[in-house]
Amino acid sequence: MNQMLTELDGLEALNDVVIIAATNRPDIVDPALLRQGRFDRIILTHVPDEDSRKKIFNLYLQKMPLAKDVKAADLAKKTEGYVGADIEGVCREAAMIALREDFKSKEVTMQHFEQALEAVRPSVSKEVEEAYQQLKEYFSSARAKQIKEERAPYVG
């Protein structure tokens, strides 16, 4: 951590350099990383809503040989709490189930997706989403407090 902070704070000014970091564990981010001049923006990526899940399914389904009963809208309704990686996993698992059933299978049916949904569970529960929201508020308020303290007039 010390080495990374040293690199971020560096003695030389870095122009046109952007550092982007991502985590699925914001609860263990060191607050030192959030000080001014380091990671200035915190962006919470929310769990996809039904319409977004439908679009994600459409991306993964377009290259799959599907039976006529498979509809992205139906799958989106059944996948609350699923993120993009979960949806990809559902599609991959449905294809594997179809191949295990019949190696010469020409299409993936809704029944295969139903079985895949039993195997691939959502990675984000309501509790986890609420915890992320609380962390976002914590980081935002801690950041605002720090900025306010840094702008205090100098007394010397």
Textual characterization of the structure:
- The protein is mainly alpha-helical and 156 residues long.
- Helices cover 51% and strands 0% of the residues.
- The protein has helices at residues 2-9, 50-61, 72-77, 84-101, 110-119, 126-150.
- The longest helix has 25 residues, at 126-150.
- The two termini are 33 Å apart.
Secondary structure blueprint with pairings:
Elements: H1 2-9, H2 50-61, H3 72-77, H4 84-101, H5 110-119, H6 126-150
Helix pairs in contact: 2-4, 4-5
Average pLDDT reading: 82
Low-confidence stretches: none
With helices defined by DSSP (H or I, 4 residues minimum), what is the helix count?
6
Q: Indicate the proportion of strand residues.
A: under 5%
Radius of gyration (Å): 22 Å
The biggest beta sheet reads:
none
Helix percentage range:
40-55%
Q: What sequence of helices (H) and strands (E) makes up the elements?
A: HHHHHH
Summary of the model, kept short:
Helix content is 51%, strand content 0%. It has helices at residues 2-9, 50-61, 72-77, 84-101, 110-119, 126-150.
Identify the notable features of this structure and list them briefly.
mainly alpha, 156 residues, 51% helix
